[in-house]
Amino acid sequence: MVDPDPAQVPRCRPRVRARLLCAERLRACALPLAARAIGTGYDWVAYYPRRIIRLAIPVVVSVALAAAWILLVPRTGIDVGGSWLKRQDSPDIGLPNLLGEASVIGGSGRPDVNPPLWSLTWEMWFSLLLPICVLLAVATRRLPALWAAAFLAVSATGYVTGIEPLMYLPAFGLGALLAANYESLRTWAARVAARRGGTAVWIGLTALGPALLVSHWLLRPQLSGLWGDLTLALRVPGAVLVVAVVALWPPLQRPLSARPLVWLGTVSFSLYLVHFPVVVAFGTMFGPGRWWLGALVSVPLSLVLAQLMYLWVELPAQRLATWTGRWASEKAGALRGRGGRQADAAASADLAARAPENDRALAE
Fold it and tell me: Which UniProt keywords apply (predicted)?
């Protein structure tokens, strides 16, 4: 989503915590910022280098750390645990594969060194296509409910047909839809809350979002085929509901603003990048019979590594991204100014060259 100005981040933090709950990682913090970007001028020259650097540096470091964990605790021949752990057997830590995973959108197939990066692929594509998404978001200000239904229908079609762009990109389109209509939705939310029974409505919506996110796994024993695919598609409206409720209902924002959750939201991107190889390493070491011991070690260790990743990698990457974006914007502005001055000079020279002809024409 739109990269926030560092000065605006504290106001967004209550919404950032929703990222940990959303299957498609819709960035709730970006909703009001994206809405401002839609309604006002936005520095797109600064945006692209800032966004790419902001994502790329932590990703490269996370792939290197994941490869180090694999070398430290080899996964070859995993014969413990369930099918999920067995699928992590024999990852390719050759240089071409590592470079492909680190590039996010340059790899072929799903990553196996740090598998959670598969979802970042779609976030990167959304970031690159953001100008188009902004124009689309402006269009959705009319008939937003119809646009939301269309996005959900496209996503459901993707899950049924197995076409990944149709599965995942509409989730970001729904985020842009929320951004474009944020003020009107906030007004509507206040009216609902003020009505009799409004609190019950919001409690129901709060519970419905997570329920939709996990409905596929709850219903999987009873459903298969087309219906199973459709229940998997329900995680998209579930993620949108989670983001919307947190963004629009103040009573839910207050408990989510507690310091531990603020910290968890702050390091959530780093946690997303570092947790997987830690969980697999200790799951392999302790085996299914002592899964609880693996969890007892891997969960706090992942949190510690996320904090270190945030301090030593993510924050420096943000500072470098901000500086690079500012530099690119200034250079682009200087080039535009130079081009304008050159055009003015050429026009002045042309007028000077034509002055004698104009004088003769006037004399005649």
Answer: Acyltransferase, Membrane, Transferase, Transmembrane, Transmembrane helix
Q: Which amino acid is at 64?
A: A
Which pLDDT does position 104 carry in this prediction?
82
Q: How many CB atoms lie within 10 A of CB 179?
A: 26
CA gap 114, 101 in Å, rounded: 8
For residue 150, what pLDDT is reported? 93
Long-range contacts of 5-9 (CB under 8 A, 24+ apart): 5/33, 6/318, 6/322, 8/33
* Per-residue pLDDT tens over the stretch 74-122: 876 555 556 667 677 778 889 988 998 898 876 667 888 999 998 888 8
Torsion on CA atoms 35, 37, 40, 45, rounded to nearest 10? -170
293: which 2 tokens?
Answer: 């011991």
- CA 266 to CA 270: how far, in whole Å? 9
Query: What would the pLDDT profile of 142-170 be if each residue is shown by its tens digit?
Result: 888 899 999 999 999 999 999 988 998 89
**For 223-230, what is the mean pLDDT?**
84
Rounded to 5°, the CA angle 127-247-180 comes to 50
